[in-house]
Q: What sequence folds into this?
């Protein structure tokens, strides 16, 4: 395994990724590779990565495991980190990170806002029951027609059992931009109670009013945005964790970079513009070992985003069926971007894609930057 890893890195691989999160399983129920790997095995692999000045990335690793692997291999480590919802959880997490990272090249990443499953008429339906199973079997137009049938809608309301914790489910609003950072006032239990409706009635009414485009986010992670601010405002955690490339019909958080600019820089002022941009560019480039990008200096890759900070925002999610076989996925558009250049070519202009695709596979070919 070490020989294979060394050969891959010699060919340009950035490093090694390993998942130790036990709930992540294969479709047949088996634990995925790496879940229960011996630390001696992981440390041996990390030494290979360290010799090539690469990166080892973990999901689900414990802090004591990270300490041991770092101390025994000298590798640069990156890991996913969660923040609790209770007052004081953020400060506690900062303290743990400071102790872990002291004298070690270890970086954490976490969500930029509350994140989890996205419920909608055309996506995940948060209810169980025979009528809801009938609804699931229909395509988008069929679902919209079905909920507009008073008799069928009555069955849906009567059978609308849910296990979703309603105090953690939030309506993204009816505006052009989604409401991601509001607290309890937009949780569906409160909104439904104010409307005198059950959650199924509330869900169906908004779905009808918005032609199926009413979205509800189950905040499984980073539920308390003030506690999250403590952690991502610290020195050892980057705001960047997202799942939009994996669970494409379940989760949409591919907007995280835009949210950093619109919310954490402009609205909350947690970061200055310069620091917010650093945390999206040169900081991650340093962690990933990409010395050819991340700063605007001669000789670097010409990857540039030109944006209007006063206007930059993400728009409401959309469900499209453009995967093979008509399979669905969420997309989300943004605004406020004057231009995006990739390798010196304009790929987006005035918020619209140009059709130019000049991206290339990232490869580790140059020494790691000393500073960022």
A:
């Amino acid at each position: 395994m070490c020989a294979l890893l060394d050969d891959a890195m010699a060919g340009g691989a950035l490093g090694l990724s390993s998942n130790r999160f036990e709930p992540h399983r294969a479709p047949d129920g088996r634990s995925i590779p790496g879940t229960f790997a011996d630390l001696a095995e992981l440390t041996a692999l990390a030494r290979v990565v360290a010799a090539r000045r690469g990166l080892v990335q973990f999901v689900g690793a414990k802090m004591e495991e990270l300490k041991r692997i770092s101390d025994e291999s000298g590798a640069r480590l990156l890991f996913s980190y969660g923040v609790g919802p209770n007052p004081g959880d953020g400060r506690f997490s900062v303290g743990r990170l400071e102790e872990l990272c002291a004298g070690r090249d270890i970086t954490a990443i976490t969500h930029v806002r509350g994140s989890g499953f996205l419920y909608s008429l055309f996506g995940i339906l948060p209810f169980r029951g025979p009528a809801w199973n009938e609804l699931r079997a229909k395509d988008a137009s069929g679902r919209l027609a079905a909920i507009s049938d008073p008799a069928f809608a009555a069955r849906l309301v009567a059978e609308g059992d849910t296990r979703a914790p309603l105090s953690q489910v939030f309506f993204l609003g009816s505006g052009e931009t989604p409401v991601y950072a509001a607290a309890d006032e937009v949780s569906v239990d409160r909104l439904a109670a104010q409307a005198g409706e059950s959650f199924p009635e509330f869900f169906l009414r908004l779905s009808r009013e918005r032609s199926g485009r009413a979205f509800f986010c189950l905040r499984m992670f980073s539920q308390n945005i003030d506690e999250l601010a403590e952690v991502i405002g610290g020195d050892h955690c980057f705001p960047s964790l997202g799942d939009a490339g994996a669970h494409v019909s379940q989760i949409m958080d591919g907007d995280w970079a835009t949210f950093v600019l619109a919310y954490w820089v402009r609205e909350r002022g947690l970061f200055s513009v310069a620091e917010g941009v650093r945390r999206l560019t040169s900081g991650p480039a340093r962690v990933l070992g990409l010395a050819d990008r991340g700063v605007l200096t001669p000789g670097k890759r010409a990857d540039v985003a030109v944006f209007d900070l006063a206007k930059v925002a993400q728009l409401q999610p959309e469900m499209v069926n453009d995967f093979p076989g008509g399979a669905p996925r969420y997309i989300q558009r943004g605004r406020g971007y004057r231009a995006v250049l990739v390798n010196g070519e304009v790929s987006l202009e005035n918020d619209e894609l140009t059709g130019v695709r000049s991206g290339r596979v990232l490869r580790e070919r140059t020494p790691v930057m000393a500073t960022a």
